[in-house]
Design a protein that fits this description.
2 strands; 20 helices; about 0% strand; mainly alpha; about 70% helix; globular
Length: about 425
């Protein structure tokens, strides 16, 4: 009965949420319509570093790279391929009835739903946990929905969209968690790790800060579950022959494997997996530039014509005022973190963010296109700004709210313009 009440409470709309949801639905519906209009029938569409393997997963599930043990995706996303089986079944049934592949439309519905849900959940965190007034919570939620790679995730089929939604859901449930009742959190933790294992590790490590008694249990049960899912993927793919497009990153892994002609031992099997991960590491890129212009910068405000580019580390904006907007946004986030560093929620979020910084800026994994990983931490920026507004008063608070509203308007105008330009004018890659 308690579970039923909690579910009803989660999905019961609060004041103003229905109108806001309609606005978000209209926005993401138009973007999905433009995306499908551009890419429907294209086998391997790519946009801003995201390779749309999720579409092929829903079209031909057994041939998904998320099930192939020769691809690094199986180990980075141990349960994602299996989790997509229900969506594949839905697409299979619809395609059989209609006579045409419906993967784009099935995914569009899922992406639109997650986009609306995560934005509403973030608004509730700001309003109900941090204690911001309703209008300010909606301004910050609008800012979140206008961030470059949040907008991109509202219509681009990729596992990052699922990770972003689950991370925000986890934080929302964490703020509601009382008396150590962590059953729902454990379930969401497992799901987060199934989608992207590094995010699952974030949650487990955070247990050391807040729930040390739960740490060993959480580590043990999730290690077992994720390992079993990897083995299950290998079992499902044992008799499947794979083919990939020539420009696929994972194709390099298979070419390297083919060059290892001695290969029937474990070393020869591990080598292509190692090189698959090693190809993502680039120690020659500037960490400072990646932090300013990719971890922020491109992640929140698109560069001109950047959606057509792949594996390129962005520099400063050619238009000066955009650099000013990025600098103001960074300062607001930094001030929010400084003012709220002693709160448990900010400590949790900093634990998450430190893992991302270690992976991408210390180890340089994915540093060449750090912005594609931004859905893992963009919501932290918004919560930080929320704390900035909450912890200030008088003119400083008014200035913070005004700056937030202006930045939200700038992001919406710039980012939607770039997306619409790409989806309507730019030729197919």
């Amino acid at each position: 009965m308690a579970i039923k009440n909690n579910i009803l409470q989660l999905f019961t709309p609060r004041k103003g949420e229905i109108a806001f949801s309609i606005f978000l639905l209209a926005l993401t519906f138009v973007l999905n319509l433009l995306y499908i209009g551009k890419y429907y029938g294209v086998s391997w569409p790519s946009i801003s570093g995201y390779d749309q393997f999720l579409l092929s997963t829903l079209t031909d599930w057994l041939h998904s790279r998320y099930l192939n043990p020769d691809f690094t995706a199986v180990y980075s996303h141990p349960g994602f391929g299996i989790a997509m089986a229900p969506l594949y079944a839905v697409n299979y049934i619809l395609s059989s009835i209609i006579g045409s592949n419906c993967a784009n439309f099935v995914l569009a519905i899922v992406l639109m739903t997650m986009f609306i849900a995560e934005t509403i959940l973030l608004k509730r965190i700001l309003n109900e946990h941090i204690g911001l007034k309703l209008p300010v919570s909606f301004i910050l939620s609008t800012l979140f929905s206008g961030l470059a790679y949040v907008l991109l995730m509202s219509f681009t089929p990729d596992h990052f969209a699922f990770s972003q939604f689950l991370l925000i859901l986890y934080v929302y449930l964490w703020t509601k968690n009382q008396q150590g009742n962590s059953g729902k959190l454990d379930l969401v933790t497992t799901c987060i790790g199934c989608i992207t294992i590094t995010n699952g590790i974030k949650i487990i490590l955070s247990k050391l800060l807040f729930e040390r008694k739960q740490f060993k249990k959480c580590l043990f049960q999730n290690t077992i579950i994720w390992s079993l899912l990897i083995l299950a993927s290998m079992f499902l793919a044992r008799n499947v022959t794979y083919s990939t497009p020539n420009d696929d990153t994972t194709c390099m892994e298979q070419k390297h494997k083919a060059s290892e002609n001695s290969g029937h031992n474990y070393i020869d099997k591990i080598k292509p997996i190692y090189w698959g991960y090693r190809n993502w590491i680039n120690t020659e890129k500037s960490r400072t530039n990646s932090f300013i212009n990719n971890m922020f910068g491109q992640s929140i405000l698109f560069h001109p014509n950047s959606l057509s580019q792949d594996n390129i580390s962005m520099g400063y904006y050619p238009v000066f005022w955009k650099n000013i907007v990025n600098a103001i946004f960074m300062i607001m986030v930094a001030c929010g973190i400084a003012l709220s560093r002693k709160t448990k929620l900010m400590q949790l979020l900093l634990c998450f963010l430190s893992i991302d910084v270690f992976i991408h800026l210390v180890c340089c994994f994915g540093i060449s296109e750090l912005y594609i990983f931004s859905p893992h931490f963009l919501f932290i920026y918004i919560i930080s700004i929320g704390y900035l507004i909450k912890r200030t008063s008088g003119f400083t608070r008014l200035l913070s709210i005004t700056a937030t509203a202006l930045i939200a308007c700038i992001l919406y105008i710039n980012n939607i313009t770039e997306i619409v330009h790409y989806l309507t004018d730019h030729p197919l890659m």
